[in-house]
């Protein structure tokens, strides 16, 4: 890959930085932010530009309004939160393109910042519309992409907008850190032993990650719905547990299991239920002998002990995906135990990287999120990158 320009390659004095951020943060029914990680991680980029005496225009999406203005999808509420974080007044503009926003941008002084309305109020954003991107390009001198969470999307502000800036485009510090830490795992450069913990429902989205990591990881722990297709391939009985059927990845899995069976660790016991609900009847059984009419919804006590033992000895840990249906309190112990084990290992010197909404949510359940080395701000984009796929947003910066 060509060298990616970062904001360290530019002096922003008297320049207007058009920064694509990802402020699609989770909120409660009162529009209170429940996790501002993406905002906090964008602050160093903003502060660097201010230290250069530059001006800033922020553009972001929020939720999925699908080109329709909806009050509940407005990002105006973010200006107050940003003002508190930056300790300066953050101005807001109700539109993203046109005469009004151009006038507001032209009125900016060094050290001032303007947040624009939700990009996805414009249907052109998700359609990679060139005219929309051109209108956005009038709002800055230097384009900065600091929105790792959406760099896998082919949207106007991600892939088309940078083209209008020629060589005056770069990534921010958030993006730089994401790439740096993900590369550390992708190329096996982390402190040994390297442990990879994968969970969640679908194995198809992570089969290439397993293929990439298996070459250098010391242990790959697999739990959640991902584990049952593997158990079935190995001849086990999985009852009514969730099985994602795909002949292509089944062939790949068979090859991996044959060659690297000592590296891949599955749960040996699971908590099964007779229905998919929190109040279901439960029992603990071998993962290879789940009775018909029962489904695995969490890893069992023996599996928790084995997984935690491996995590405790790790030098580097990557985690994506819960090992059970953690939304149900009766099936959340496995995932909570993983979060605690990773936090404890980190405190004792391991490097940990956790990504994916469910994994981050489980960390917050136990207040462990601040004990992790790095929380990835991307879910789909992180998996995309670790699958060795070119991210459109990064390609647009280096082309």
Folded structure, characterized:
- This protein folds into two domains: 168 residues, Rossmann fold (3-Layer(aba) Sandwich), CATH 3.40.50; 200 residues, Phosphoglycerate kinase, N-terminal domain (Rossmann fold, 3-Layer(aba) Sandwich).
- The chain is 36% helix and 17% strand.
- The protein contains 15 helices and 17 strands.
- A six-stranded parallel beta sheet has the order 3-4-2-1-5-6, with helices on both faces. It has a six-stranded parallel beta sheet with strand order 10-8-7-15-16-17, sandwiched between helices. The chain has a three-stranded antiparallel beta sheet with strand order 12-11-14.
- The longest helix is centred in the first third of the chain and has 15 residues.
